[in-house]
């Protein structure tokens, strides 16, 4: 019988080890699943970004094609405009050349006017001399008497013609003077326009060069737009390929996450079976390495049971406060802590018991109280420190009092009937971190009502 008992105890211990390993593996898979889930969320966000990028890329491709078409139209229009402008500029340049060439003609015209003026002056001098000759002829005719009367008539006629010639020469000279003044004024204006024409010619030459540069720029713009179209088309194809790859990767990630979650559930099921064997062995009466901690848990639970009952009997604690389930969140706590009617009594009267019981064995990491909803009204002093604002991780490990925790094994211990439960489970340390513990859970009840559990957690 002794050998059989030892064998069963050994089997129970092995089951406990299996449960511990299953718990650690399930914890790893839970963290892996959490990371895959987080990656899936990021992947979904990336896919949304890719969809927006694909839409923007499609717009870029359309814009690039429109840009190329615009460049071609601009090139055609500039080519036509350049041809017309070149023709117009050539005509303007020819007109300016023609105007510029008038300068020599006008100067020759002034020289002719000057020559005609000289001839007019010579005619006037001849008329004066002729008139003087006519006067002399009249004097001589008068001296000759009857014999020179005919000569006198000729002399008079000569004087009259000389007078008319002089008047005509004077009139021609006056007209020529007026013509000379008008011609010089016209030449002055023409010379000014000629000077401007020469400046315009320089501007026209610059304009021709500018238009040639514009044509070259439009050509370059067309070439670059063609290159942009090629790049955007290639980028569009790459975006399509990348989007398809992300979609395939996303589907694969979801399948993997589902597979990991299934493996985790199977491990948790195996963990539960191993825990059932461990718990059954612990109730078999044989001595195991867990027996000491079971005894310490039962002693600690009895002490808490008696102290609370005495407080109820003396009126120091009411059943309403003991079973208060109105958890009021404490403002500014992270993780959230809660307050109810039992917290004050638990901190003052029960925490010292938890501290003392935790110090009874170095393997014990903590003794605590858990109500039916997973609420810890108090904890050992080392785990009940004031929270540090903004330090979530530190608070989760060092301010575990007044928080709500729940896992599958704790839930089983809360829901089942028995004198105690020995389970291996994963203690949630937050941010995907777990620690595999072996715990003894002893049910607590007052006034015939199940309150929760007294737990002793220890490392094997």
TrEMBL record:
Keywords: Transducer. The keyword Transcription does not apply. Residues 14-250 form the Methyl-accepting transducer domain. InterPro entries: Chemotax_Me-accpt_rcpt (IPR004090), MCPsignal_dom (IPR004089). One of its GO terms (cellular component) is membrane. One of its GO terms (molecular function) is transmembrane signaling receptor activity. GO terms for biological process: chemotaxis; signal transduction. Belongs to the methyl-accepting chemotaxis (MCP) protein family. This is Methyl-accepting chemotaxis protein. The lineage of its organism: Bacteria, Pseudomonadati, Pseudomonadota, Alphaproteobacteria, Sphingomonadales.
């Amino acid at each position: 019988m002794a050998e059989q008992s030892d064998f069963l105890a050994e089997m129970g211990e092995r089951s406990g080890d299996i449960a511990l390993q299953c718990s650690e593996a399930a914890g790893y898979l839970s963290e892996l699943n959490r990371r895959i889930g987080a990656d899936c969320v990021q992947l979904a966000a990336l896919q949304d970004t890719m969809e927006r990028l694909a839409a923007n890329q499609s717009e870029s491709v359309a814009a690039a094609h429109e840009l190329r078409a615009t460049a071609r139209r601009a090139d055609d229009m500039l080519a036509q405009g350049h041809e017309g402008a070149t023709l117009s500029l050539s005509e303007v340049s020819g007109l300016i050349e023609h105007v510029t060439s008038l300068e020599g003609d006008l100067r020759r015209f002034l020289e002719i006017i000057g020559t005609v003026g000289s001839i007019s002056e010579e005619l006037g001098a001849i008329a004066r001399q002729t008139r003087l000759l006519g006067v002399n002829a009249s004097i001589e005719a008068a001296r000759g008497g009857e014999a020179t009367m005919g000569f006198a008539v000729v002399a008079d006629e000569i004087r009259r013609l000389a007078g008319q010639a002089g008047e005509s020469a004077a009139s021609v000279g006056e007209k020529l003077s007026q013509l000379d003044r008008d011609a010089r004024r016209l030449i002055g204006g023409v010379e000014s326009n000629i000077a401007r024409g020469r400046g315009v010619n320089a501007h026209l030459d610059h304009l021709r060069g500018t238009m040639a540069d514009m044509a070259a720029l439009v050509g370059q713009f067309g070439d670059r737009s063609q290159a942009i179209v090629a790049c955007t088309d290639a980028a569009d194809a790459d975006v399509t390929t990348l989007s398809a790859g992300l979609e395939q990767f996303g589907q694969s990630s979801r399948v993997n996450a589902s597979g990991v979650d299934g493996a985790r559930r199977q491990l948790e099921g195996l963990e539960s079976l191993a825990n059932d064997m461990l718990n059954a062995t612990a109730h078999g009466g044989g001595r195991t390495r867990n027996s000491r901690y079971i005894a310490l848990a039962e002693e600690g639970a009895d002490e808490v049971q008696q102290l609370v009952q005495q407080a109820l009997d003396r009126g120091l604690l009411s059943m309403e406060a003991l079973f208060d389930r109105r958890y009021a969140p404490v403002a500014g706590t992270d993780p959230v802590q809660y307050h109810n009617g039992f917290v004050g009594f638990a901190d003052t009267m029960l925490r010292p018991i938890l501290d003392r019981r935790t110090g009874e064995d170095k393997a014990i990491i903590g003794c605590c109280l858990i109500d039916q909803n997973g609420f810890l009204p108090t904890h050992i002093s080392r785990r009940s420190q004031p929270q540090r604002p903004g330090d979530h991780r530190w608070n989760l490990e060092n301010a575990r009092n007044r928080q709500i925790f729940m896992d599958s094994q704790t839930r089983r211990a809360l829901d089942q009937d028995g004198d105690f439960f020995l389970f291996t489970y994963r203690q949630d340390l937050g941010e995907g971190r777990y620690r595999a513990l072996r715990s003894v859970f002893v049910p607590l009840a007052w006034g015939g009502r199940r309150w929760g559990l007294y737990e002793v957690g220890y490392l094997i």
